[in-house]
Design a protein that fits this description.
The chain is of the alpha/beta class. Helices cover 67% and strands 8% of the residues. GO terms for molecular function: ATP binding.
Length: 563
C-alpha cells in the first residue's frame, strides 16, 4: 500500500464542517473512488449469490445436472470475487481512514504553528487535545463509511431491480420498505447530533481541567488543595459520564432499529414469497432467492444507518477542527526585507542597539514583557528593524531572526540533546558553550545518559532553577541574530546568577541581545541599561550611571521604594 500523502500546503478553506469533510474527500479522491469501485463489486458479488443459488435449486428440481454444475461454478466464482474485492476494499478503507485522520492532524498542527502564541489565548488545551484524541477517528470513520455506503446503495438498487423483474409485488415491497426504514430512523439522528455536540464539548472541558491539575499538582499539594480539585474533577467527569449515557441511549435505539426494521422487512418478504410459491406463481428456487435477497438486504441497510451515524459524528468532529482552522493569528507578516540594525519600539522608546548587550529594567515587570512581545512581533506595535517596519517582514523571517525566550517556555519530552538543539544544526562545541554560559553543565552530568538522556514531560524531573538554565541554554544554542531574554535568572541562586551574567555577556559579545531584568548582578554586566516606567523610557546609561543619577531606577533594582 502506498505511503500516506502529505496535506496540501496551507490551511484549507474550512468555513463549515461539511466543507471541511468535502475538502478531505477531495484531497484523496483517487483512493476514495477506487475504494468505492471495490466496494460496489464486493456488494454485487454478495447480492448475486441468492440469485445463483435459486437457479441451482430450480436445476435440481428439474433434474438438469449440467445446469446445476454451471450455477455451482457461478456461486464459486462469486465467492472468489467476494473474497478478492473484500480484501482490496478493506485495504482501501484502512488507507482512506488513516489518510483522513492524519491529514486532519497535519492541517491542525500546521494551523497551530501558524497561530503560535494566538492559539492558547483563543482555545483551551482540552479542545485542541481532543482533536488528536477522538475527533480524527470520527473524521476517518466518516470518510471510510463513504466507501461501503456507496456500494450499499448500488447493491440495494440492483437487488430491487432483480426483485421487480422476478415478482413486481415483492420488488415493490422492498422498494417501499427501504425508504420507510430510513424515515423511521431519521428522527433519531437530530437528538443524537445534539447530544454528541454537548458530550464533545464537556470532554474538551474535562481534558482542560485534567491538564491544569497535572501542571499545578506541586502547587496544589503545597497548599493542600489537591482534594478540592480532585472533587471538582470528579464532579465534571460525572457530567461527562451522564452526557455519554444520554448519547448511548439514542445510539442504542439506533442500533435496535437497525435490527428490528430490516427484520420486519425480511419477515414480510418471506411470508409474501411463500404465499406466491404455494400458489405456483414463483418457483421454489425463486422463493429461496427472495429469502436470500431479504436476508442480504439487512447488511446494506444496516450500513446506510451506520453511515448516517458516522457522518453525524464526523460532522461534530469536523466542527471542532473548523473552529481551530478558522482562527486568525493576532499578528500577520508582510513581504518586506530588512538588513537588520537598530530594533526600536516606538511606543516606549526602547531601542536595542546592534552588537550590544542591552537591558530593560522596568518598574513593573509586566511592562518589560509587553515591550519584548512587541519587539518579537508577538503582539501588534510600531516597531522598526533597521529602516524597515517590523510588521512588513514575513512572520517566519521574524521568528528566525528574533528570538524571545521567557519563563513560560516549555521543556518537551524526549532526548535532552534534541531538546536543546531544536534546529539540529548545532555542533557539539556550540552545545557545550551554550551549556557553560547557562551554568547548566551540572544538570547534564547528573542526568543518566547525559545529553542522550531522556527528559520527562515538561521537564518535571528538574527544579525550577534547572529548567530555567536549560531554557537559557536552548536559546543560546539557537544563536539568533537578535536574542531577547525575559528574566533569565529569576529562579537561580545569587552565586549562579553572577556566573550566568558574566558568561552570558561573553557568549553574546558582538551580538544583539536584550535582557529584561531588574537583577543588579545582570545589569552590571550589560553595555547599556534602559529604565522604563509607565511603559516609556525614563532614563538610559550604564548600570552604575543610573544608580548614581536616577532614584527611581535605584529603588527598582535595589528592591527599595523611592523616598
Amino acid at each position: 500500500m502506498r505511503s500516506l500523502p502529505t496535506a496540501n500546503p496551507g490551511v484549507p478553506d474550512a468555513r463549515s464542517p461539511i466543507r471541511y469533510l468535502r475538502w478531505v474527500a477531495h484531497t484523496q479522491r483517487g483512493p476514495l473512488l477506487l475504494g468505492i469501485v471495490y466496494a460496489i463489486l464486493w456488494w454485487l458479488a454478495m447480492a448475486l449469490v441468492p440469485y445463483a443459488i435459486g437457479k441451482g435449486i430450480d436445476a435440481i428440481r428439474a433434474g438438469d445436472a449440467s445446469s446445476l454444475t454451471s450455477w455451482g461454478g457461478v456461486v464459486l466464482a462469486l465467492g472468489i470475487a467476494q473474497a478478492v474485492t473484500g480484501i482490496l476494499r478493506h485495504r482501501l478503507a484502512v488507507y482512506n481512514w488513516l489518510a483522513a485522520a492524519y491529514r486532519t492532524v497535519q492541517v491542525t498542527a500546521r494551523q497551530a504553528t501558524r497561530l503560535g502564541a494566538t492559539l492558547p489565548k483563543r482555545m483551551s488545551t482540552g479542545e485542541v487535545v481532543s482533536v488528536g484524541n477522538s475527533d480524527i477517528a470520527h473524521i476517518g470513520n466518516a470518510i471510510d463509511i463513504l466507501i461501503r455506503g456507496s456500494g450499499a446503495v448500488v447493491a440495494i438498487a440492483v437487488v430491487t431491480v432483480i426483485l421487480m423483474d422476478s415478482s413486481p409485488p415483492l420488488g415493490l415491497m422492498v422498494l417501499v420498505g427501504l425508504p420507510l426504514m430510513a424515515v423511521a430512523v431519521a428522527p433519531l439522528l437530530k437528538p443524537l447530533h445534539r447530544r454528541q455536540n454537548a458530550h464533545r464539548d464537556l470532554q474538551g472541558d474535562l481534558s482542560t481541567r485534567a491538564a491544569d491539575i497535572v501542571a499545578g499538582l506541586r502547587v496544589l499539594r503545597g497548599i493542600g488543595g489537591e482534594r478540592v480539585f480532585a472533587d471538582r474533577y470528579g464532579a465534571e467527569s460525572q457530567r461527562v459520564r451522564r452526557a455519554g449515557v444520554r448519547v448511548a441511549s439514542v445510539e442504542s435505539m439506533l442500533e435496535g432499529a437497525q435490527v428490528l426494521l430490516p427484520g420486519l422487512l425480511i419477515t414480510a418478504v418471506t411470508w409474501l414469497g411463500a404465499t406466491f410459491a404455494m400458489r405456483g406463481e414463483i418457483s421454489p428456487g425463486q422463493l429461496v432467492a427472495f429469502y436470500g435477497y431479504a436476508a442480504f438486504l439487512i447488511a446494506p441497510v444496516r450500513t446506510l444507518t451506520e453511515a448516517a451515524d458516522k457522518l453525524t459524528k464526523g460532522h461534530v468532529a469536523a466542527r471542532r477542527v473548523v473552529r481551530i482552522l478558522s482562527l486568525k493569528p493576532e499578528v500577520e507578516g508582510g513581504t518586506g526585507r530588512s538588513e537588520g540594525g537598530l530594533l526600536r519600539d516606538v511606543a516606549s522608546g526602547v531601542a536595542v542597539r546592534p552588537g550590544m548587550l542591552t537591558a530593560v529594567a522596568a518598574a513593573v515587570p509586566e511592562e518589560a514583557a509587553t515591550i519584548a512581545d512587541r519587539l518579537g512581533r508577538y503582539s501588534e506595535g510600531d516597531v522598526d528593524f533597521g529602516d524597515v517596519a517590523l510588521a512588513t517582514l514575513p512572520i517566519s523571517e521574524v521568528r528566525r531572526r528574533i528570538l524571545v525566550a521567557d519563563n513560560d517556555a516549555k521543556l518537551f519530552a524526549g532526548v535532552l540533546r534534541d531538546e536543546l538543539d531544536v534546529t539540529g544544526r548545532a555542533t557539539a562545541e556550540e552545545l557545550r558553550q551554550a551549556l557553560r554560559a547557562a551554568c547548566a553543565e551540572d544538570i547534564v552530568e547528573a542526568l543518566p545518559g547525559g545529553l542522550d538522556g531522556r527528559v520527562a514531560e515538561a521537564g518535571r524531573e528538574f527544579s525550577g532553577g534547572q529548567q530555567q538554565r536549560l531554557r537559557l541554554a536552548r536559546a543560546l544554542t539557537v544563536d539568533p541574530e537578535v536574542l531577547i531574554l525575559i528574566e533569565p535568572t529569576s529562579a537561580v541562586d545569587a552565586h549562579s546568577e553572577a556566573r550566568i551574567a558574566d558568561r552570558l555577556a561573553k557568549a553574546r559579545v558582538g551580538k544583539t541581545t536584550l535582557v529584561c531584568t531588574t537583577s543588579p548582578l545582570v545589569l552590571d554586566r550589560t553595555d547599556h541599561v534602559i529604565y522604563v516606567e509607565g511603559g516609556v523610557v525614563r532614563a538610559q546609561g550604564t548600570h552604575r550611571e543610573l544608580l548614581a543619577a536616577h532614584p527611581g531606577y535605584t529603588a527598582v533594582v535595589t528592591r527599595r521604594e523611592e523616598s
